[in-house]
Amino acid sequence: MKRVSRRAAHYIRDELLKRERFIVIALNSGHKIVSVNRSDPDWNLPGLIRGSVLPDSLVSLLDAASDASEPTVFPYVELNDFFVDIHVLGDRESADLVIHDVSTDHHNEQILQQRAHENSLLSEQRAALNSELTELNQELFLRRRQAEKASAAKSRFIASMSHEFRSPIASIMGYADLLQTELPDSNNPQALQRASWHLLTLVENLLEQAREGKENISLNPTRFSLDRLAGDIEALFRPQSTTKGLAFEVKSSPVGIEVECDELRLRQILINLVSNALRYTRQGLVSVHFIHRDDNLYIRVRDSGRGIAAGDIDRIFEAFTRVGEDTTSGAGLGLTISRQLINRMGGHLKVESEPDVGSEFRVVIPCPSTQAKPGEMPSLSGTVLWVDDDPDILSLYQVILENWGLRVITASSVAQARDLFNSNDCPLVVTDIHLMDGNGVELFSHLKVQRPDIMGIVISGSGVVDLTEEVAGEGIRTFLQKPIDAEVLYKEIAAAFAGDQPEHTF
Ligand code: ADP
């Protein structure tokens, strides 16, 4: 460094002395203190008094620095609660000690070290947390994949189970209908019908609950007679009310109208509500009233049963939740499903109840009406190829269609259907979608290549899979769900042979 002027040197010294604390000690050869100069008159260290001998602790530093030609610095020496740098200048004969108070620097340095230590601990913790988070994310991802796979497997299982359930129920119901015509005075067909409707409703409840993306369920509105629906409900539940000794009343007004909504769903709702009313009522009355007004169907199911406590009213709509004394069987699903269905149909369900007095469930569903036409089924003519791998369904619909005057050719597989189609003139093909050796829609497309003017009706027993897209564009007239409503089927077939444009072409 270049030499500075004496004036600048003095200035620097004075500035330094203002900020820093120094003690400068001059010693003689016997380590006796000859002079003590302090930059700060308030700062002194014990034992550093002119005329006294240097304390032993500092003498040892002098010894360590002896013979050094350059000044020696001993940093951060702890002296009476202070940290000081001690500079030794000179030799044994006459030495100067410059003691510089660096306590603040030392303190700051310690804080810095502490912070650095804390920071490194924090970084270690963060790194550990990050790796834990990564593991958790991976686990979450795996679990979600597993859940998605399980859910997809569940949906496939439900779809195939529903098919398995619906087909036999459909054939029980169809035969019960036939028996009813053959044996109008017997109770047996009614018992069969009742049992199958209950089975069907239970299956539908479970399917509904298990179904993914509940809002996507497609409704299947059909026209039906309100009187017939009321009559069916009466016939279904009359035996149960008689056994329990309950008065049972079903009324509908106005008489003689047809309404249009999803009849299967409506029956499901009614069966849930009416069977609850009968199950939770020991004595008195259960009544079901249907009123159609201004394109709305109002249904009131009233009972004089055990009622529901005010605090439980909301809970009864929660899935798998049952309230009150648990003496009756039930899965706690009926009301949950009924409310979901009613909401889906654009309506709402309300309940009023008083414990030990009774309950009233009120449903409103938008449902346009038309005046009923005389319910005759004029004879039809034509040939239908019916394809289903369930032999009971085949013989059931063979009887029904032949009763309507049609010629029916039945096939139980895709292969047989193709053979029979080749050897017969079949303008209308009715096929189940799931066949043992193939798919009904593909079969129809194949046959249509051979004969472009054929008409098709596809039937499915699966309530889960939406077939709209699958059958779209295939030229299929309509798609019906099992169990098939005989009146709807008659109308579809009659319309097909009359050359009417399909109402629900996809
Ligand atoms: P489940 O009847 O199979 O248990 P629901 O969802 O149909 O399932 O009904 C849920 C609960 O609501 C029932 O457990 C019952 O406690 C109560 N509940 C439903 N309907 C009635 C009724 N009409 N009277 C009294 N309690 C009822």
Strand fraction equals: 15-25%
Radius of gyration: 48 Å
**Total domain units:** 3
Q: What's the tally of helices?
A: 12
What CATH architecture of the largest domain would you give?
2-Layer Sandwich
What is the end-to-end distance? 97 Å
Q: What is the name of the CATH topology of the largest domain?
A: Heat Shock Protein 90
The CATH homologous superfamily of the largest domain corresponds to Histidine kinase-like ATPase, C-terminal domain
Descriptive keywords:
alpha/beta, Beta-Lactamase, Heat Shock Protein 90, Rossmann fold, 5-stranded antiparallel sheet, 5-stranded mixed sheet, 12 helices, binds adenosine-5'-diphosphate
Structural description of this entry:
- The protein has 506 residues and is α/β, with parallel strands linked by helices.
- The protein has 3 domains: 6-101, PAS domain (Beta-Lactamase, 2-Layer Sandwich), CATH 3.30.450.20; 221-371, 2-Layer Sandwich (Heat Shock Protein 90), CATH 3.30.565.10; 383-498, 3-Layer(aba) Sandwich (Rossmann fold), CATH 3.40.50.
- Helices cover 44% and strands 23% of the residues.
- The protein is built from 12 helices and 20 strands.
- It has helices at 6-19, 56-65, 103-182, 188-210, 226-244, 263-279, 334-344, 391-403, 414-423, 440-450, 468-471, 486-498, and strands at residues 22-27, 33-38, 72-79, 82-90, 95-101, 222-225, 247-253, 257-261, 285-293, 296-303, 348-354, 358-366, 369-371, 383-387, 407-411, 428-432, 434-435, 438-439, 455-460, 478-481.
- It has a 5-stranded antiparallel beta sheet, with helices on both faces. A 5-stranded mixed beta sheet has the order 7-9-10-12-11, covered by helices on one side. A 5-stranded parallel beta sheet has the order 15-14-16-19-20, sandwiched between helices.
- Helix 3 (103-182) runs antiparallel to helix 4 (188-210) and helix 3 (103-182) crosses helix 8.
- The longest helix has 80 residues, at 103-182.
- The radius of gyration is 48 Å and the shape is elongated.
- It starts with 5 loop residues before the first helix and ends in an 8-residue tail after the last helix.
- Bound molecules: adenosine-5'-diphosphate.
- Residues 272, 276-277, 280, 303, 305-308, 316, 322-324, 330-336, 359 line the site of adenosine-5'-diphosphate.
